Amino acid sequence: QVQLVESGGGLVQPGGSLRLSCAASGIIFTIYTIGWYRQAPGKQRELVAEITRTLVTDYADSVKGRFTISRDYAKNTVYLQMNNLKPEDTAVYYCNAYLGSRGYWGQGTQVTVSS
Q: pLDDT at residue 27 above 90?
């Protein structure tokens, strides 16, 4: 059974930092591209960052220079380090693993940026 479990969300003030984690099980983690998506109320889900099995990364323009995606093969985990958070970063953040036509989602973790 494939499981992607996100953690690390919470409430943070503008300018603060959070690190999200996505722990994977039930898949050959090393060969999947892993992405972080987010969905704010009333908006479509959007790609925030992704990392391939060869560690190629890509970021949405809105988070470039502030967010960093990384992966730990030994722990089957992908991280999203989020710095200088802004109120517009408030959303539910989801982890996604895909390989060709196969894709899996986590349950999401809430990130709220507010003073």
A: no
